[in-house]
């Protein structure tokens, strides 16, 4: 498309961006209709006023998940039967929507038309979100690190999302058969069809995760070096068994079937794998200080932003949830510098707008949030 509008050209360079957001009965927002800047947006306000709730609405459209991992019904404003989140993307040709209703599966909309599955929305608004909740990636369980990898890869590759859905469905069926076999032994043929699907999809998941981590590692190390205290960050993919190909994984499933009956669950496959995060030769989860864990988490997330930009051809939407207040002045300045250099459209929340720094504020649209009401205060 040829255009002479300088602002439109700037938006095209930024890639996919959100022009406006409309909320109805979402969290503490009764109703909201707000336009965002194609570059930087700063959302300021005291705690518990709705800053993170707004950020979460964008995260929901990107990932189909709530940022805080709660049940979907908990996002519905008390006294309402359902909530809706809608975003118009720049260009005026795409509208994304999500409807949450108690007791009913979430519904995803594209230009007002319901999609067959909510997951069909994934990849249409790629985003990288950095919040204090992401410390779980470094300090908590393998489940948190696998979820991190899965969310990032689903946004980049539709085939990964399909393989993940197939793998989860087949794994659930095999586990159900294992539990049934404790009472009545099930014939091998019932296991074989599910194990075939686990093996074919699982091998692809492992291949994609391992390749992605190889790409992330040097970028995360460089970002960490810039923000850290001279320490080195190393990340790697940890497969918990040696099966790499679908044939090897199929054989491993067959070999462990009898033991898995006793366990009541599948003991081999990518659902047991982990992401290694090592800070200066020591496992970050066990030995990293809170400051080290936070810095390594931010470095890892900034690496996902860069890899996403390389894969997509434009930077994903960047969401920063009150992360600046957790950093000292030096790290805050370095993070702001990286955001200015690498981000496309960004939405930052903070208790005081000044925390974003003058370089961002000079270019940003600034909003004030109070008790579920959000209004612009400064036009960037």
Quick tags:
380 residues; alpha/beta; Rossmann fold; Glutathione S-transferase Yfyf (Class Pi), Chain A, domain 2; six-stranded antiparallel sheet; six-stranded mixed sheet; disordered N terminus
In words, what does this structure look like?
The protein has 380 residues and is α/β, with parallel strands linked by helices. It folds into two domains: 191 residues, P-loop containing nucleotide triphosphate hydrolases (Rossmann fold, 3-Layer(aba) Sandwich); 178 residues, RecF/RecN/SMC, N-terminal domain (Glutathione S-transferase Yfyf (Class Pi), Chain A, domain 2), CATH 1.20.1050. It has twelve helices and 15 strands. The chain has a six-stranded antiparallel beta sheet, with helices on one face. A hairpin with a 2-residue loop joins strand 10 and strand 11. The chain is globular and about 65 Å long. The two termini are 27 Å apart. 43% of the residues are buried.
